């Protein structure tokens, strides 16, 4: 897999029946190692080890409904009150982070209403503070650190 601009970590990989799997510490199981999963697992590690989020407050590939369509959010971080806090949309490293990717994540966030939104391909990460009342985004220099206990 491609080297990312995210901290490396001691990930677990296994081979089975010609496929490669990576261990997901949140879901506690091995998942097929796709380029997007590679980015997601690195980003989860970043959230846990560098930003102080608790495993118990992360939900991965959660279902949501947008325009009567079933979609999946890559990573949602919740406050300890259960309120959605940060939505992260992950793409494979070779998928450019452009306006269409930000727009996709923003549409998903209309359902979740997270005050923070991030998009990453493991090479570039962009984070925004979302003002739903005024319909505005403010790009941030960094992700918000965990301000609550897990």
Automatic annotation (TrEMBL):
Domain of life: Bacteria
Pfam families with a match to the protein in the record: HSDR_N_2
Lineage: Bacteria, Pseudomonadati, Bacteroidota, Cytophagia, Cytophagales
GO molecular function, one term: endonuclease activity
Native source species: Emticicia oligotrophica (strain DSM 17448 / CIP 109782 / MTCC 6937 / GPTSA100-15)
UniProt keywords, alphabetically: Endonuclease, Hydrolase, Nuclease
Domain Type I restriction enzyme R protein N-terminal span(s) in chain numbering: 35-144
Protein name as it appears in the record: Restriction endonuclease, type I, EcoRI, R subunit/Type III
InterPro entries: HSDR_N
């Amino acid at each position: 897999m491609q080297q990312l601009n995210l901290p490396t970590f001691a990930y677990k990989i296994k081979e089975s029946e010609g496929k490669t799997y990576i261990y997901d510490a949140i879901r506690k199981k091995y998942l097929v190692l796709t380029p997007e999963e590679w980015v997601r697992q690195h980003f989860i590690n970043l959230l846990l080890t560098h930003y102080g989020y608790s495993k118990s407050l992360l939900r991965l590939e959660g279902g949501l409904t947008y325009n009567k369509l079933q979609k999946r959010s890559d990573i949602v971080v919740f406050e300890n009150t259960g309120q959605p806090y940060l939505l992260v949309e992950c793409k494979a490293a070779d998928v450019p982070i452009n306006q269409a990717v930000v727009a996709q994540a923003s549409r998903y966030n209309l359902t979740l209403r997270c005050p923070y939104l991030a998009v990453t391909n493991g090479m570039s990460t962009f984070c925004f503070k979302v003002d739903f009342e005024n319909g505005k985004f403010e790009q941030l220099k960094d992700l918000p650190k965990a301000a609550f206990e897990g």
